[in-house]
Amino acid sequence: DTAVSQTPKYLVTQMGNDKSIKCEQNLGHDTMYWYKQDSKKFLKIMFSYNNKELIINETVPNRFSPKSPDKAHLNLHINSLELGDSAVYFCASSPSAKGRGYYNEQFFGPGTRLTVL
Amino acid sequence: DAKTTQPTSMDCAEGRAANLPCNHSTISGNEYVYWYRQIHSQGPQYIIHGLKNNETNEMASLIITEDRKSSTLILPHATLRDTAVYYCIVRPQYNFNKFYFGSGTKLNVKP
A85-105 pLDDT, tens per residue? Predict the structure, then answer.
């Protein structure tokens, strides 16, 4: 059983298009995340949702809009795609930090490789 | 946020212990040290974390110096499947859900 799944695994599209990446977790976690890993392999957090509420919004262009219909899903919609958006996007989830002290473990999905031509 | 410094790459012979160092000299008192790894073309995988004491689980051991300014991840018997990039991360004190991944250490386990 896949804990954190993402679709699609690969996405090739033209500049200016709008695309979405979907993420689902079946772990019962309260918190979900989107990360971007660029060509230099640096992994940077983009967004975090806790129980459908946005709690982290790093410096990301507003062309990127996360949407959480329920706490098991966090989708990423990207408008007007640019060449620099080409990267691997990872979704992750973790138990809520509430009542669990100062730590949590994040479970990552397999990634979506986005290529903008 | 405390920053971490790791060697770019390391080699290890299969079956031997792999010791991966990490410096985090500006770590704060309540910040935890986490280790994740990323095998090629996969998502990062949690390995272990600790605050002050040494920790051990089925995957690895974490040794944290007394001053907490550095730590070492130990894979006791490295296998070829342990070849990956290993990230040492210090989690910000009051932000439970923020992780900053640096450049990591590429561990090459060789037969």
Answer: 999 999 999 887 554 444 568
